[in-house]
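Hi there,

I know you've been waiting on this one. I reran it after we fixed the sequence typo, so this is the corrected version. Both the input and the resulting structure follow.
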Amino acid sequence: MTFMVTAPIFVFREFMRHRVGFSYNEESGRYRELKSVFYVPGPERRLVQEGRPGRYNFVEGTQEQYEIVVKQTRQAAEVAYRAYQEMLEAGVAREVARGVLPVGIYSTMYVTCNARSLMSFLSLRTKNENSKFPSYPQREIEMVAEQMEEYFAKLMPITYEAFQASGRVSP
């Protein structure tokens, strides 16, 4: 299966942890100018971490915390993108200029995997009460994984049903 994924680069770094059974082909900031599209958490994104690393939960933040996150994220993205544009306009190579861009900038990649690798990915990157093993994924990669899972369920319903029946563990 091949998926076209558009997400912030920090989500791609989470993908790269899945090296077995996955191949990636990401657009290159060396060869084309990157667009000014950055991740800014929406109001549904829980902001406050509670618990120990690897087993923590996120809870709602205050309105003040949300406003700080949005303001600072947008401001940092705007400053970085202006610096990127200024370097490009001065004739600096794209591969050098992109160094100032934060990991919140969006990129696009093709992800190719087989069903078994996808099931392993989904068991780690989605939180599901029916899973034999608890998972604590970063919400942003979980959102991508949920969309991939929808496609998987439609494309391979028998395999998907077996995945669910086995406690969301790949065979």
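Quick highlight: The CA atoms of residues 134 and 144 lie 18 Å apart.

Best,
R. S.
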